[in-house]
Amino acid sequence: MLNGVLGNKYIDSTGRYTNGATTGPHLHFGMKINNEYVNPLDHFEIP
């Protein structure tokens, strides 16, 4: 059940409930430097 909402029909491939906002494959990307998360955009040149 999502946030106490009965009848939530949105589940992922493992059977866990989601909010239904994900519409396709996507990536969550994180970077750690010296075991601390940093903003990846600070470390790439973006045109």
Description:
With 47 residues, this protein is an all-beta fold. It is 0% helix and 13% strand. It has a two-stranded antiparallel ribbon with strand order 1-2. It is elongated. The termini are far apart. The relative contact order is 0.14. The model has no long low-confidence stretch (mean pLDDT 79).
Q: State the major sheet.
A: 2 strands, antiparallel
Helix content: under 10%
Number of strands: 2
Q: For the largest beta sheet, what order do the strands appear in spatially?
A: 1-2
Q: What Rg do the Cα atoms give? A: 16 Å
Tally the helices.
0
What is the string of SSEs from the N terminus onward? EE
Overall average residue pLDDT: 79
Tags for this model:
47 residues; mainly beta; two-stranded antiparallel ribbon; 0% helix
Short description:
This protein has 47 residues and is mostly beta strands. Helices cover 0% and strands 13% of the residues. Strands 1-2 form a two-stranded antiparallel ribbon.
Map the helices and strands.
Layout: E1 31-33, E2 36-38
Antiparallel strand pairs: 1-2
